[in-house]
Amino acid sequence: MQRRLLRGLAGALLTLLCMGLLSLRYHSGLFPQGVRVTPKPSPPSPGPPELQMHDIFIAIKTTRAFHRSRLELLLDTWVSRTREQVTRRHLVVTNCSAEHSHPALSCKMAAEFDAFLASGLRWFCHVDDDNYVNPRALLQLLATFAPARDVYVGRPSLNRPIQASEPQPRNHTRLVQFWFATGGAGFCINRKLALKMAPWASGPRFVDTSTLIRLPDDCTVGYIIECKLGGRLQPSPLFHSHLETLQLLGAAQLPEQVTLSYGVFEGKLNVIKLQGPFSPEEDPSRFRSLHCLLFPDTPWCPQLVAR
Question: In 10 A of CB 87, how many CB atoms?
Answer without folding.
Answer: 12
